[in-house]
């Protein structure tokens, strides 16, 4: 994951390229002072892969059912490329704004606020409003991810113990029991401390995925037996599930900000591109062959389709342990914002108590939300369509337009590409949200 670059050609990597007037890569991505929180490119790569290899990936066979076998293989790389590009827009905007403001580290919400304040006169006073809009979306996304993790772990543990023992606990009961280890994990407050767990979880996860893939390849249906393209009305559910699967955008800046050499995050062979490329290969394989193996009988998450043998039931426990480690990584983002507010507004003597009080309260809230979810797949699609789409596809193009405006380089070409991205985002947001809510209401009516 460690990459090299040359300053002379560095601007060619910039989404905001097209003029040599601005700062180059050496100025934008200057080395940060190393401290106890600093992480290496390899640790950053482990974090990026871990946050994207979560429950969303295991629901991709169902997404392929919504899209059709070959339409899914066509659309998945396109959506991945768009997500990568928009994420790069966000990273470069952060460093451009940080260069202008002489600030090396910024979170997503403050990048949006600063971009608005650098924009046209009529919008500059709305910076705080846009910051809070990003924060709200961030909280919805991250707590939504955390709630989905609870449901995923509970579904798999319930099936495991139902099949291998005389212990029969309801899904709601398992969600409540999982609250104890999750609360313990969320006492860890630094990414550096989570890095060894994330690395170990990645190894376990890859082993479990390889075993699942071996099972998928063992008895494949002929591709001609499955529809190449699904129903048009189901494509929004595919979009929402895929957007949920690429759930790492909110964690991108916190991870990148902890690197003392941020240039290794953004170069062509750096952390971002490498992690997304590896994850895309895995997503395509799981989605395509998962649907090819189980066909229309594929369930909300592919682990529930595994054979009812002790060996494959153990694989489910491996997935549960990996997803459990992902919880504090997703939880890190909203808590980072809250802790900064506490350090600014609360007297030092009360800060520690309040930080842990809020941490435990948010974990309990995500647990309670999980208790209300009727179906895992529908909630995944809803969270992906609303929060993930906003954070990944809506805000970065807006931020880039504002940055270009501040540089006096807002050309028709830049307008065109960002308006296209925004149209894709709005279409996916509207149709995905409508389809997910419609099916969730229907599911409540049947329960």
From TrEMBL:
Domain of life: Eukaryota
Transmembrane intervals: 69-87, 133-154, 166-186, 193-217, 237-255, 267-291, 311-333, 353-373, 379-403, 415-437
Cellular component per GO, a single term: vacuolar membrane
Amino acid transporter transmembrane domain ranges (all copies): 38-436
Xref: Pfam families: Aa_trans
Cellular compartments annotated: Membrane
Key words of the record: Membrane, Transmembrane, Transmembrane helix
GO MF, one example: L-amino acid transmembrane transporter activity
Membrane topology note: Multi-pass membrane protein
PANTHER family listed in its UniProt record: AMINO ACID TRANSPORTER, AMINO ACID TRANSPORTER TRANSMEMBRANE DOMAIN-CONTAINING PROTEIN
Record-given protein name: Amino acid transporter transmembrane domain-containing protein
Organism of origin: Pristionchus entomophagus
